[in-house]
Amino acid sequence: MNGSTRNRTDTQVRPYQKEKPMARIRHLAILTEDVEKLVKFYTTAFGLKIVHGVGTATYLSDGHINLAIIPIGPEREIEGPQLQVGINHFGFEVDDVAAVREACKELNASSNVDQRPPNREAEYRVHDPDGNPIDLSKHSWPV
């Protein structure tokens, strides 16, 4: 290994990483024009189960991760016409939103940690430095 190559053990561990438990990826969301087609695909091909959730999405689960199949029409009305079919966002279950908010600010997230409307499973959303949307929830998603 040359001197300019870094591995994970070379990176600085920030204080907030030592003090709190690791967040858990619990949620992926796909926007689609045809919810029924995707629900049939994921339940038949991969054996995912439909679980109860909030909002317009149909929620699927493997018992660990929640997969939201979201109709794109209503989302475009809320978020705008720029939305495209495909993977839209993912979500973490977190123990301490305030600590995550501070970490995101320090690490140059491209947005603030903002509260979501009450008709959403996640209570908060932030965008990483590249603009990828990340949902944050203290209560998690149905699995």
Describe this structure in words.
Strand 2 (49-51) and strand 3 (58-61) form a beta hairpin. This protein starts with 14 loop residues before the first helix and ends in a 6-residue tail after the last strand. The protein has 143 residues and is α+β, with helices and mostly antiparallel strands. The protein has one domain (19-137): 2,3-Dihydroxybiphenyl 1,2-Dioxygenase, domain 1 (Roll), CATH 3.10.180.10. The chain has four helices and eight strands; from the N terminus they run αβαβββαβαβββ. Mean pLDDT is 85; it is low at 1-11. The chain has helices spanning 15-19, 35-46, 72-79, 97-106; strands at 24-32, 49-51, 58-61, 66-71, 86-93, 114-115, 124-127, 133-137.
Give a concise summary:
This protein has helices at 15-19, 35-46, 72-79, 97-106, and strands at residues 24-32, 49-51, 58-61, 66-71, 86-93, 114-115, 124-127, 133-137. By secondary structure, the chain is α+β, with helices and mostly antiparallel strands.
